[in-house]
């Protein structure tokens, strides 16, 4: 009994139009009623007029249910007595209301389906939330209507399961830096599943990858420590280069005291250019670079009175 009611409910669900036989039955009963009244009164002419009006009304009802219009991007899947008859559209087309039914309307435009995988564990057991967008199109309306019950829902579920499978096989680092590779792999897997349904996948794009906040903070600290390490390495390399430059310069000054003395004078001059500057010179440098006399002269020049 449950199976019987289920089949009746399913048939009513699939039939989106009023059964034409109901209109014909109503018209026939109306015709009989009109003829009975007219003949009872003896008005034959009025009865004939009523018959013609009823016939034209039935024809109009039949045409109303027979004429269909499909949009430019749509295809109508027509079944004749339950069997596949063909695809109709786009534009105006006709069906036989008593024998033909439209099972579904197939949209041939590019469809956009967002899907996500929430709290999915990676290969290194890190829970991540991944959001992606799927671009797909129906290339065979017959397969989309006959091979799967609801091709839209089927594509959505196929995309979600494929995304979860791929995340479970990847390390977190590979997911974060290899989005393009995951996009291509997802497209290949989903397209392989949907091809038997007459659906092809044009592209898959991952929009966002969300990781736990604690892990995000730890990765941020790790990146900061790595940058500090690189900065210290660069500073050490700079010190090595500076030391090498000083060593090379010392070889130039070791046998040329005059050049060393000129360099000392230039250093002292650069230090005293700023007003009120204080220059501290090591005692060993004073003797080595002969800065004693020069420093006295500079001090004497600073203490001399200026002319008004």
Explain what the structure shows.
The protein has 308 residues and is α+β, with helices and mostly antiparallel strands. The chain has 4 domains: 2-107, no CATH class; 111-211, Band 7 domain (Tetrahydropterin Synthase, Chain A), CATH 3.30.479; 213-253; 256-301, no CATH class. It contains 11 helices and 8 strands. The strands form 3 sheets. Strands 3-2-5 form a 3-stranded antiparallel beta sheet. The radius of gyration is 46 Å and the shape is rod-shaped. Mean pLDDT is 76; it is low at 1-24.
Which tags fit this structure?
3-stranded antiparallel beta sheet; 8 strands; 308 residues; alpha+beta; 11 helices; disordered N terminus; Tetrahydropterin Synthase, Chain A; rod-shaped
Summed up, the helix count is 11
Number of self-contained structural domains = 4
The biggest sheet amounts to: 3 strands, antiparallel
Low-confidence stretches: 1-24
Q: Strand share of the residues?
A: 15-25%
- Helical/strand content category: alpha+beta
Mean of pLDDT: 76
Q: Helix and strand succession?
A: HHHEEEEEEEHHHHEHHHH
> Any idea what the radius of gyration is?
46 Å
N- to C-terminal distance: 125 Å
Q: Percentage of helical residues? A: 55-70%
Question: In order across it, which strands form the biggest sheet?
Answer: 3-2-5
The overall strand count is: 8
The gross shape turns out to be rod-shaped
């Amino acid at each position: 009994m449950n199976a019987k009611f289920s089949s009746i409910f399913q048939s009513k669900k699939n039939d989106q139009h009023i059964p034409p036989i109901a209109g014909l039955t109503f018209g026939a009963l109306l015709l009989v009623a009109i003829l009975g009244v007219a003949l009872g009164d003896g008005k034959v002419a009025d009865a004939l007029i009523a018959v013609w009006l009823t016939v034209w009304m039935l024809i109009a009802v039949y045409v109303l249910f027979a004429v269909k219009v499909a949009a430019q991007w749509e295809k109508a899947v027509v079944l004749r007595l339950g069997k596949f008859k063909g695809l109709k559209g786009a534009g105006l087309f006709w069906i036989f209301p008593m024998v033909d039914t439209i099972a579904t309307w197939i949209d041939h435009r590019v469809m956009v389906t967002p899907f996500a995988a929430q709290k999915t564990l990676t290969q290194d057991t890190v829970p991540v939330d991944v959001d992606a967008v799927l671009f797909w199109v129906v290339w065979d309306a017959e397969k989309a209507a006959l091979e799967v019950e609801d091709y839209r829902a089927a594509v959505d579920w196929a995309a979600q399961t494929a995304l979860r499978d791929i995340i479970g096989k990847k390390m977190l680092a590979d997911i974060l830096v290899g989005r393009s590779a995951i996009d291509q792999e997802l497209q290949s897997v989903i397209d392989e599943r949907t091809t038997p349904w007459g659906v092809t996948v044009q592209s898959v794009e991952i929009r966002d990858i969300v990781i736990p906040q604690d892990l995000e903070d730890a990765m941020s600290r790790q990146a900061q420590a790595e940058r500090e390490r690189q900065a210290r390495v660069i500073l050490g390399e700079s010190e090595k280069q500076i030391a090498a430059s000083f060593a090379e310069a010392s070889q130039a000054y070791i046998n040329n005291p005059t050049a060393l003395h000129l360099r000392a004078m230039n250093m002292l001059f650069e230090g005293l250019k700023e007003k009120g500057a204080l220059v501290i010179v090591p005692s060993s440098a004073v003797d080595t670079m002969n800065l004693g006399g020069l420093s006295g002269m500079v001090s004497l020049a600073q203490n001399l009175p200026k002319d008004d």
